[in-house]
Amino acid sequence: MAVSSIPRTPVDALDRPERHIDPPTTLERLWRWVRAPLHLPDRFQRWRLRAALPAIHRHAGRLAMLDDVALNDHILSLRRRLLADGLTPRLRCETFATVREVAWRELGMAHHDVQLMGGLALLEGRIAEMPTGEGKTLTATLPAATAALTGVPVHVITVNDYLAARDAEAMQPVYRRLGLNVGAIVHEMSPDQRRTAYRADVTYCTNKELVFDYLRDGRELSHDRTPLLAHAARLKGSLDDRRLLLRGLHFAIVDEADSVMLDEARTPLILSGRDSNDPVDIALIDDVLALAGQFREDEHFVREKSQLHLTEAGRQVLAEQAERRLEARGNQSAWLGRARREWLLQQALVARHQFQRDRHYLVRDGQVQIIDEHSGRVLADRRWEQGLQQMIERLEGCEPSDPNRTLARLTYQRFFRRYQHLAGMTGTADEVRHELWRTYRLRVVAIPPHKPSQRRDWGVTTFNTPNERWDWIARRAGELSAQGRPVLIATVSLADSEALSLALGERGHDHAVLNARQDAEEAKVVAAAGRRGAITVATSMAGRGTDIALETAARDAGGLHVIIAGLHDASRVDRQIAGRCARQGDPGSVEWAVCESEPLLDELRGWQRHVGVLHQRLKRAQHEREKRHARERARLLDADWNEADQLGFSGRGE
Ligand SMILES: Nc1ncnc2c1ncn2[C@@H]1O[C@H](COP(=O)(O)OP(=O)(O)OP(=O)(O)O)[C@@H](O)[C@H]1O
């Protein structure tokens, strides 16, 4: 039974007219008016970018008259002029017009004006905020090709391997026609394949692969600590550049910039190696886990804002237990020091209570594999640090792996600042524009949509238990599918996607599932998700970047309907998922189905847990979590500044 409902479309009245997005309230109008002067710089930027369009169109008109041979000659001459004169404003417009013409001839898509504006903003080193589905992939070809034609190596960075490979392949005809080559880095590649891909004019890759490759290069260069020493070594002949993977950090265009540069920047990237010389103390791990199993919540430990803390009673029990173990001549070093034993126990409590199977990790082939909280994908050879991995392996009855030894570490904040020229694009940057400026000195420019959005918001429906929610969603999806509309249901965790799949199966609804366990057929699932009546259940794997192309019959039936089952850590993520529908002026709708057992509610404490309807409490929890994450990022960066810089081998430094 749904407990309350903030405006909703009842299941039994699906043929009623849909509710449009609410008009702004008086308070919202007032707030907009107060904020209006703050947006003036943004308006000025848009006006400035728009002012460059007539020149691009003039060149485009001329290029459209050329036959294929003449266009190829023009490209050659343009390249020569770019290499000789550099990127003058005139050549910039001419290059944009050329890329546009080539995209039209090779892909059948000519950049819209707003995409040209987005491309200009990227070339100037800004964050172009373009609504979801506006064609950022095509937009990125403008600055990427322009920079590559002037001889600058370009990295187009995105959030997952699937998107890196897809975008490189889809845009390759444009680059090829311009005489440029394209590389794509995916996880499975060997060092030689990576080197070749990085040597391309434009390289598509993910942030993780890129930073790990950079760290690997840093280790190669560890004897030549500064650029000067590296140069000296090169002159001496003792440094062979061929062993390096990257060609330095020149121009980066970061797709889904808020995710890559902020959401993922809460933890440093750690390059580690297995340390087989330091075997795992299984007896100690078992002992600590057993002890943690006796600790009760609220008595021995408390959960505060998703973190666990020992209470005074918990500390006392731990001290007594440690004494007993010391008397029995147990592992002296682990139990003797107070800080060490408390830390060990806290790790065990975290392993027991904070990490859930099929939400934070999955067990496959006898191994614990981490699920990336942002992309919903398996991080194949990533492991938790400081004994946590072994504890979880033990709890899951897997063979504990060798502990890790940290070889190098780096935060995204410091990494991206090392690029000589940095730009980004995303559909959701407005609320983090100040942080992007503070951290990366990147300004956000909001680019308007090509066509007004036709997305309709059906509101929020709330439930007491997950089972009620799954039943309701299964019924809803079945009814919409029968009307010919494709339905995408986004769940917060892998376990949720499987529970929902079960409910759909019980009702006899054909559906596809896309999650970390069933990721092999990703391209096929996404390709089928826009067919008439298709039902697709997905974790955040189908969030950012996923482009669901609609069949004509599906578009005529009302377009894709998205059901968001549970709020994510940041409202930006929810908006990205909603952005899978109503793209490029298509029709589409979105609604939320939330439940009293939402994990996000852990973020609230005291009165916050009890005041307001569920959806308001969830929004409050989301806001609290966003604030906490922003604080964590700021703390991490501060801590990082204080560390000695081990890797200043490329780019402009900080
Ligand atoms: N100029 C254009 N003309 C025609 N179709 C276009 C044009 N630009 C983009 N598209 C189409 O629009 C769809 C969405 O493009 P894309 O996936 O790049 O959007 P996006 O802005 O990256 O979305 P997201 O924010 O979800 O990542 C694609 O199917 C693409 O082919």
Automatic annotation (TrEMBL):
Gene3D superfamilies: P-loop containing nucleotide triphosphate hydrolases (3.40.50.300), SecA, preprotein cross-linking domain (3.90.1440.10). Keywords: ATP-binding, Cell membrane, Cytoplasm, Membrane, Nucleotide-binding, Protein transport, Translocase, Translocation, Transport. The keyword Transferase does not apply. The keyword Translocase applies. Its EC number is 7.4.2.8. Residues 31-626 form the SecA family profile domain. InterPro entries: Helicase_ATP-bd, P-loop_NTPase, SecA, SecA_DEAD, SecA_motor_DEAD, SecA_preprotein_X-link_dom, SecA_SF2_C, SecA_X-link_sf. GO terms for molecular function: ATP binding; protein-exporting ATPase activity. It catalyses: ATP + H2O + cellular proteinSide 1 = ADP + phosphate + cellular proteinSide 2. It is an enzyme of class 7 (translocase). Residues 117-273 form the Helicase ATP-binding domain. Part of the Sec protein translocase complex. Interacts with the SecYEG preprotein conducting channel. Has a central role in coupling the hydrolysis of ATP to the transfer of proteins into and across the cell membrane, serving both as a receptor for the preprotein-SecB complex and as an ATP-driven molecular motor driving the stepwise translocation of polypeptide chains across the membrane. Monomer and homodimer. Part of the essential Sec protein translocation apparatus which comprises SecA, SecYEG and auxiliary proteins SecDF-YajC and YidC. This is Protein translocase subunit SecA. It comes from Aidingimonas halophila. The lineage of its organism: Bacteria, Pseudomonadati, Pseudomonadota, Gammaproteobacteria, Oceanospirillales. The gene is secA.
